[in-house]
Backbone:
């Protein structure tokens, strides 16, 4: 399998294997790969003749230095996992300097308000960091299709907005959430949970699944109250936010509108580890 640590070598290689109309599929990740990431790679392999994965823990999207420092970095392991599905996938695992060229700062973006909700509210600057690195990676890899998980639904919408506003010629493909048997959404951060915490963290998916059922008959406010109570009864978990929002604008649902698609979003701390999940309510 080919692993590149710098963009010049990656570009040289891509240029040498690219024919006219070769579709390049791209899966940007921060590593510590799990089956959720692999499901994105599988989708890319199905629809593109070249698949590139980037593994890069992007410093500018972390608002919390401890979270950045503790983020798992497991390149060797990641490469082994990628090889289990194909040895043709190209790995781009750059250094911070290769991406930022000595200026590790994010650009400021206006994503028409998408950046001001949920993750944007609680992680100041996060989406400026995401926008900056994704744009940079798109410039380097020049993909035809890029695959993003619905697990980070707000990020997916923001990347679509970035591409539209910056006129980047790439098709953004949203992929469904890969869950553990217990229902817990797979996440690199799950690795930091103890066995006990991991079992208990199933409350997150259980609660948003109940919220989905309740939303059939109750108002968004009533559903939010139910979720808040569930977490008040579970002291090991600190609910950071629960939101029912319009999928397109990400604005909080005040009054239900039959013509809109809604989604529930949740962020919870378990022993200082931050987990997020989301579920479609339609
Ligand atoms: P990350 O490495 O966490 O930045 O994630 C890289 C990509 O994988 C993002 O597009 C995520 O939304 C996606 N992803 C992460 N976890 C999952 C999952 N459980 N199911 C599907 N996609 C996921």
Residues:
């Amino acid at each position: 399998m080919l692993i590149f640590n710098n963009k010049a070598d990656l570009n040289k290689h891509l240029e040498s294997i690219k024919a006219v109309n070769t579709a390049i599929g791209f899966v940007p990740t921060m590593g510590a790969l799990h089956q959720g990431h692999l499901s994105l790679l599988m989708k890319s392999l199905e629809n593109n003749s070249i698949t590139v994965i980037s593994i890069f823990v992007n410093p500018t999207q972390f608002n919390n230095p401890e979270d950045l420092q503790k983020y798992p970095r497991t390149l060797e392991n990641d490469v082994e996992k990628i090889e289990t599905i194909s040895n043709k996938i190209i790995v781009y695992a750059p250094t911070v300097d290769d991406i930022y060229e000595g200026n590790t700062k994010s650009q400021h973006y206006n994503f028409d308000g998408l950046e001001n909700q949920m993750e944007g509210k609680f992680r100041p600057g996060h989406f400026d960091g995401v926008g900056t690195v994704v744009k940079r990676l798109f410039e380097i890899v020049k993909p035809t299709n890029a695959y993003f998980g619905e697990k980070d639904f707000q990020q997916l919408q923001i990347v679509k907005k970035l591409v539209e506003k910056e006129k980047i010629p790439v098709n953004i493909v949203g992929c469904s959430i890969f869950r553990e048997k217990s229902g817990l959404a797979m996440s690199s951060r799950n690795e930091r949970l103890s066995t006990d915490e991991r079992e208990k963290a199933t409350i997150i998916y259980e609660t948003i699944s109940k919220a989905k059922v309740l939303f059939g008959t109750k108002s968004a406010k009533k559903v939010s109250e139910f979720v808040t109570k569930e977490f008040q009864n579970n002291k090991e978990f600190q609910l950071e936010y629960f939101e029912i929002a319009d999928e397109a604008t990400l604005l909080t649902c005040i009054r239900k509108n039959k013509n809109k698609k809604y989604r529930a979003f949740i962020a919870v701390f378990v022993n200082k580890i931050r987990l997020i999940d989301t579920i479609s309510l339609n």
In short: The domain at 3-175 is CATH 3.40.50.620 (Rossmann fold). The longest strand covers residues 237-246. The CA atoms of residues 75 and 118 lie 30 Å apart. The chain has a mean pLDDT of 97.
